[in-house]
Amino acid sequence: MTHLAIIGGSDAGISAALRARELDPTTDVTVVVADEYPNFSICGIPYYFTGEVAPWRSLAHRTSADLEATGMTLRLNTYATGIDVTGQRLEVRTPAGATEQIAYDELIVGTGALPSRVGITGLDRLTPADGVHVIHSMGDTFALHRDLTPGSLSPDPPFWGGWVE
């Protein structure tokens, strides 16, 4: 059996995982996702803020349960920190902060693009605490929503109930 490891839980990584399982259902697929929101439409975030897309969960193409039902394994809130090409191992940092190795036969890196900083000096050092938001993930979306919602003291948006299947 082939073990395919994929870094990235947005459209590129998830599409690759789904296609691999479609071509060979015996392929063991592990997808490493840096946050807890696999297969979300990042391009839809502006429409969430305009109110054209609601609730925020509708930005998901598929739920985690839908994806796992295809036979893939999702490693949510897990960061890829290194690749050992010779040993065919992916080093990851788990949600608990531990370092683990994931063996693979094939590796796909489908992490998508980074937000452009357009050459603005100092932008890389500014954060939502400074009142500056760079929107690239659902976590970024929730941080901006908190800042735009008057009187919001909660660490998560008022509609947040956790991404539970």
Structure report:
It is a single chain. The chain folds into two domains: 3-112, FAD/NAD(P)-binding domain (3-Layer(bba) Sandwich), CATH 3.50.50.60; 114-157, no CATH class. 22% of the residues lie in helices and 20% in strands. It contains four helices and seven strands; from the N terminus they run E-H-E-H-H-E-E-E-E-E-H. The protein has helices at 11-23, 45-50, 64-69, 138-148; strands spanning 3-7, 28-32, 73-75, 79-84, 89-93, 99-103, 106-109. A four-stranded parallel sheet has the order 3-2-1-7. Strands 4-5-6 form a three-stranded antiparallel sheet, with no helix packed on it. It is globular, with a radius of gyration of 17 Å. Residues 153-165 have low confidence and may be disordered. It comes from Schaalia naturae. This is FAD-dependent oxidoreductase.
The CATH class of the largest domain turns out to be Alpha Beta
Question: Biggest β-sheet: count, sense, barrel?
Answer: 4 strands, parallel
CATH superfamily of the largest domain: FAD/NAD(P)-binding domain
Separation, N- and C-terminal Cα atoms: 29 Å
Mean pLDDT: 86
Task: Please give the share of residues in helix.
Answer: 10-25%
Order of helices and strands: EHEHHEEEEEH
Q: What is the beta-strand fraction?
A: 15-25%
Q: What's the oligomerization state?
A: single chain
